[in-house]
Design goal:
By secondary structure, this protein is mainly alpha-helical. It is built from 12 helices and no strands.
Length: 219
């Protein structure tokens, strides 16, 4: 049967995840149904790319605006900023990321997209409250709830970015997202954009295909 051939081509282990999800292991129709779910997963993953793209660009530009206000328009080359970044021996190293990203780059605008997504998330930690966020967080994220403290808002942004980053990584590696709370994932993306710029969030909502596809989940 074609469905069996497709399963073998994509790998039994990969399709088995979807067979387990629909609870039809061993059923003659399990592969056919699993492929429908697999196809939906691929479609909704693709639909998420546009909102994820906007979210990443909006957040990194917001953080970059604060860095420019603090260190000047050549902030990637600022010794003071470089020295403020963590420099761990193991795991992700923001300082090395900055140094590597600015190599052969002549302008700040060229450096910004070279930095990893996690770099911008790591900027939203308590380490930078007194250095940066006490003075600039509310300005670059103006649509926060009135009265929200710097630490609470910064922590919320960091945690929301962690959730969004994990979704992004699963999609980028073609992993299943069927077990995730996709409504909540999408809400986090939308709110991250909105806290920076409401018109941009509204524009994203009018041009996205995630919510229509989520209602079409086959199982």
């Amino acid at each position: 049967m074609p469905s069996t051939i497709i399963k073998e081509t994509l790998s039994a282990a990969r399709i088995g995840t979807y067979e387990t999800a629909i609870g039809l292991n061993g059923n003659p129709l399990s592969t056919e149904h699993a492929l429908k779910l697999y196809g939906w997963n691929a479609q909704v993953s693709a639909a998420f790319f546009s909102p994820l793209h906007l979210c990443e660009v909006v957040i990194r530009n917001a953080v970059a605006s604060a860095l420019e206000a603090k260190y000047g328009d050549r902030w990637p080359w600022s010794p003071s900023f470089e020295g403020s970044l963590p420099n761990p021996n193991k795991g992700y190293n923001p300082r090395k990321d900055l140094i590597n990203s600015r190599k052969r780059m002549l302008t700040t605008g060229k450096v910004i997209p070279e930095l990893n997504f996690v770099f911008w998330q790591k900027m939203l930690t308590s380490r930078f409250d007194s250095r940066l966020w006490d003075s600039h967080l509310h300005q670059v994220f103006p649509n926060h709830v009135a009265g929200t403290s710097v630490s609470v808002l910064r922590c919320r942004l960091h945690n929301d970015l962690e959730q969004v980053r994990k979704l992004r990584n699963r999609i980028a590696h073609h992993e299943p997202i069927i077990a995730r709370n996709l409504d909540d994932d999408f809400e986090k993306i939308s709110s991250l954009i909105e806290v920076r710029c409401l018109p941009t969030s509204n524009w994203m909502m009018k041009n996205q295909f995630v919510t229509p596809l989520m209602s079409l989940k086959p199982f």
